[in-house]
Amino acid sequence: MNNSADLLKELRIDRNAPPPPSGRGPWIALGVGAAVLAAGIAGWALFGRDDAIQVRTAQAVAIGGSGGSASVLDATGYVVARRIATVSAKVTGRVREVLIEEGQRVEEGEVLATLDPVDAEAQQSLARAQLDAARSQTSSIQAQLTEAEANARRLNTLVGQQLVSKAQYDQAVAQRDALRAQLVTSRRNAAVAADQLDIAEIGVDNTIVRAPFAGVVIAKAAQPGEIISPLSAGGGYTRTGIGTIVDMDSLEVEVDVNEAYIGRVQPKMPVEATLNAYPDWKIPAEVIAIIPAADRGKATVKVRIALNSKDARIVPDMGVRVSFLEKAEPARADAPPPGVLVPAAAVVERDGGQVAFVVDDGRASRRGVQVGRTLGDDLEVSEGLSGGDTVVLDPPAALTDGGKVEVADDGASNP
């Protein structure tokens, strides 16, 4: 009985007891967490990923500061030589010897080449022979004249004594006067022959090509055996020159300034020139002259600029960028901070103000800027940017502060 009662008690349901533990609970929680994590990753992939915007950039350049000179206009041009000559002979002939090479320094009057002088020397020999013949003839006539004058004097005495007839005396005088005229003509012929000899000697000298001024040879155009001529004779076997010489002391810069800004340029204006080959070398210069003629095709005016520094690194036809500078002003305590020059395409309007985007470590930083003068295709920015900042050109509307950017390979340039 007791055993039966105990069995019945074990079968009774206790409604106040806690529910028994289930073995599936931990796996359900783990599955829910994984689903949430996957959803978060998918959401970031679809909505949270920051795609880089491809942009073009340029570098801001400092243009002035307290107590210095500020650029009022920038332009580009080339180094040119005021004295440059392609040297040739004055006569047509065959080259016998060439004594120059590219890069060689020559002095004024130095022999550069010689031509075959056979023809010129033959003319010289002929002229010398003609001069000798004229002088011999003059000597012969002079001797005859001396005899005729003596005969005329003797007959003059005899005719006074009535020992000879007057007709004989007159004949002697006529012969004397004829010889005097022949002597004058002979002397003139001798003088002409002497002049012809001088011309022939000049012809021989013309076969020697000399440097017209001191300079550097930049081109060698002829070789021994070639025919050269001061005038082109046509065909491919006739040269017109021996070589080209440049006076390196005559180098200057020529730039084309847009006619809309030529009013900012004045003679004797200070200029800073920078060669494309040496971007860190600032060469002091000044305006020589403004050519009083405009190019209607390009709407530009040519300006000549003198380089105040002479250096072997400066050679003709080098590309150069020049900055026309204002005169330096005394430093002031309340002077504004230095400004920078950026392309006009770098400044845009956003939210009613002018801004620029600066690229730093792959991110775009939006900066409010204060814009000053317009200098050609560039703008002067007095506040918001510093020299050396990399600015975005034509910022896309989708570009925001802190947005990720990628610089195009062909977009980086200096203003």
Structure description:
With 415 residues, the protein is of the alpha+beta class. It is rod-shaped, with a radius of gyration of 49 Å. Helix 3 packs antiparallel against helix 4. A hairpin with a 6-residue loop joins strand 14 (270-275) and strand 15 (282-295). The strands form 6 sheets. It has a 6-stranded antiparallel beta barrel. A 5-stranded mixed beta sheet has the order 8-7-5-10-11, with no helix packed on it. Strands 2-18-23-22 form a 4-stranded antiparallel beta sheet, with no helix packed on it. It folds into 4 domains: 53-65 and 336-407, conserved putative lor/sdh protein from methanococcus maripaludis s2 fold; 71-82 and 249-325, Efflux pump adaptor protein, beta barrel domain (Elongation Factor Tu (Ef-tu), domain 3, Beta Barrel); 84-116 and 207-246, OB fold (Dihydrolipoamide Acetyltransferase, E2P); 118-201. The chain starts with a helix and ends in an 8-residue tail after the last strand. The protein has 4 helices and 25 strands. It has helices at residues 2-11, 25-48, 118-160, 166-205, and strands at residues 53-59, 61-62, 71-81, 84-87, 93-98, 105-106, 111-115, 208-210, 215-220, 227-228, 238-239, 243-246, 251-258, 270-275, 282-295, 300-307, 319-325, 340-343, 348-350, 353-360, 363-368, 370-375, 378-383, 390-393, 405-407.
